[in-house]
């Protein structure tokens, strides 16, 4: 078995019973973790995580990522305590600052996101350490609370906290206070170099080094023995992001000319028909710029680029057949 670290990422593309089977297969093939998404208002992370935790033996189970706004801090800590009861020492709390306009549409004002995250991580960590916590901050106010375990393990819980960061200030904060950072997808591998600089600055503030911070990275992976089918699978997602999140795409090196051309076809939000009609505008090299797409050899080479630029473990988001992707990466990528 290869020693290359590799993890699986799942959103809501598969029925939950199928997702459980993919996680079990990933465990069998030596994957170290599964990260369950929670972003759009579709599938929360906690229920699938519980399902994966209850039906596996070894694989780590991570939220990829939940947010620090929608669960009261006491409930958030109790939730991860409960998951740790299901799978002791296999749970990872991945947490991010969420995004607008969705947060605003459900009544959340994401003000001072750095301070809000700092307070959340501090109180959450202390509660999972089984401390009695009094904390009066700007976002969290708790008075003498503890995870009140009567029946079960009363010792501190080992639940690492990873911050899902894209912006460099949040990356610095992750370097200062988190056990790890979940690096984003649809970025060019060279983005990682900036991210690592910010992480290192934050780490220095806490008298830590970059090596103290785990750095798994989400990577969109569309792999097939039919290269064209693999590329077309990723092209659709890439087209959608080019139309709807051009700032992210421009930062990754996509030309303004291509963005302008696509914006003549796509509206906001883009319809399925508009995305289909704009796909032909996106060439293969742009698809492969920010995704691991194509033949097995090509996707492994792209994953190596992210790893060579500072990621510590790819978290592979399958666009095609998850079983095929798991098989291909079960033998490593170096």
Counting DSSP E segments of at least 2 residues, the number of strands comes to: 12
User: Which ranges are low-confidence, i.e. pLDDT below 50, for 5 or more consecutive residues?
Assistant: none
Strand residue content: 15-25%
The CATH topology of the largest domain turns out to be TIM Barrel
Question: What is the C-alpha radius of gyration, as a whole number of Å?
Answer: 20 Å
Rounded to the nearest angstrom, the distance between the terminal CA atoms is 13 Å
Structural class: alpha/beta
Number of domains: 2
How many H/I helical runs? Answer: 14
Largest sheet: 10 strands, parallel
Q: Helices, strands, pairings?
A:
Layout: E1 7-10, H1 16-28, E2 33-36, H2 46-54, E3 60-63, E4 66-67, H3 73-86, E5 91-96, H4 102-105, H5 113-128, E6 133-136, E7 141-145, E8 161-165, H6 168-177, E9 180-183, H7 191-205, E10 216-223, H8 227-244, H9 246-251, H10 256-263, H11 272-278, H12 284-289, E11 292-294, H13 296-308, E12 313-318, H14 322-329
Parallel strand pairs: 1-2, 1-12, 2-3, 3-5, 4-5, 5-8, 8-9, 10-11, 10-12
Antiparallel strand pairs: 6-7
Helix pairs in contact: 3-5, 5-6, 6-7
